[in-house]
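Recap from last week: sequence in, structure out.
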Amino acid sequence: MKIKTFNSPRQLGEAAGKDAAALIKDAIEKKGNANIILATGASQFETLNQLIAEQGIEWSRVVMFHLDEYIGLPVTHNASFRKYLQERFLARVPPLKAVYLVNGETDPVAECARLGQLIKKNPVDVALVGIGENGHLAFNDPPADFETEEPYIIVELDEQCRRQQMGEGWFPSVEDVPRKAISMSVKQILKSKHIICSVPDGRKATAVKNTLEQKVSNIHPASILQTHAACTLYLDRMSAAFLSNSN
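Predicted structure tokens:
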């Protein structure tokens, strides 16, 4: 794992977006297409903005998956991750080769199976992810399932995760946050050839410290990123503030 720290969320996002673009272009050059995973949430705003601004990406050769979606939440809801990606990414780039969004409004078991078959046929070149305030990867809250081989799973959202969603303004109260979601599994995320992990904001400082300084454990789900050979963690001064070697 590599760690890069920047002065601001914008600088963090610019670097992460540029690096993601370079990896996508490299995959296209080497094998004719690129399979990517995009994350959502406030942590990804600047990274996605920079990725969209990058020149020379042949988007018609890109296949996109995303990490997770609430079960039962309409795509019209402000907190829908499908809505997020449609408005903040898909509407702002040329048409992709294929887009596989998680539909939380259908049978979740069948949806996990559908997406699982698709991602098995499209090994991921570049995954853009974040880390939750509780240390989760995607919606794999602690204690996360490190063992399942299923690419997508149904998960229960813990209290801290649900409070984060409210705190970021996606829901008016904790009670409004769905209790279940479809999430890409930890093992599936780790199968990505490259991982770009963008983590701005002081709210994430404890999670970042646990990710980097605790032993790998499903109590700190993102700590599993320590084991990935090509993961880069992008921090700002606030999210890096609690690290032992932080200035």
